[in-house]
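On clarity, I found the account of how folds are encoded harder to follow than it need be. Since the whole study asks how a given chain folds, the encoding of that fold should be made plain. The format is easy to grasp once an entry is in front of the reader. For illustration, here is how one protein appears when written out as sequence plus structure tokens.
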Amino acid sequence: MRRWLGLLLAVSVIGIGTALAFDTAVEDHRPVLLGAESYTEGWDQYFYFEDGTFLAVQILISNYGPTDHRALVIGSLVSPDSDKPLVIKNGRGRKDWSFDDRQLDLKVAHHRFNGTHPHYRLYLRNSRGEVELTVQVQVEPWRLGHIPDPQSAKFQYASYMMPMAQARGRYRRGSESGGDAGPWQTLRNGRGFAFRYLNSTSLSKVAPVWIRVAPIDSQDSALPIFYLVQRPGQEQSSFLAIMGGGQIRQQWTKFPVTLITPEHDAPNEAEHDTDADRRPPSTIEFQIAGTDGAVEGKITMTRLLQRFDFVRELKPIERFFVQFLNTPVHYRYLAQYDLTYQGKDGGQQLTGTALAEIMTLKR
């Protein structure tokens, strides 16, 4: 029974227990493989394409199921011409998946994520469908490090390994129903980001809420990128950087952020989120002042691309156990940012479109 519950918790990125001591060095290209039962680590990727298709891919490693260091891949593609997302998922025990110590090369079942900066390749395939993607990163990685610090037993390591990237490829629906695979559909002019993380213990103890925002469309030479993790007790750790010329030009940490949550859910969310404490914020506001620069403004969620709840992908017997536990729900949005940036070269108004991902725990 313990292993069954462990499986369900890890699929929801939740665990039980405490972290074990380990070397705090974390690399973006290879897993750390902790011994703590409740730890999780992974690689999340999000891309929005010119035809309105949205792709989210999560590669998760944790100690759950019949063996430790089990890997899970969940890809979810939302296309504008279909009401039903294409979900491709598989899990494997440690002996049935592999990685490379020297460079990023994760292989789980028929899925593979590999490459070296700035060129990467993503491939997903099972009976539900197939996705092929080539990715080119446009900005050097922004490694946020350990939050709050590596001396704490309860921390999250966070890194925008791809702060801004271009993607192209193709996909098709599979033959799971017994018929032939569908025709290939082209994915053009995709833009997005990839995030590397490690949670030393259960998500509820290190990050009950997180917000990731990265730009995908702007005419400005300066581009903002944002991350916030809300830890137990409503304590916030906030990060903002200004990108330009393929580099992180300036960054700020530990500034106050105001999250504005609507009184009522947006129409697409009303049937799911009746608990106001767990509704995702619709607006993020902040004001940063310092001797080396200042930023002031807001980020507004404008269009819900996907609400993703792992519980919906589980079998009925699994759902029975999970419904008694806190589980994460991921909200993926198109967002608009409107910021006033005062840097070394003077003032500038920054406006554009971003991808935003908000995770909040649900009872």
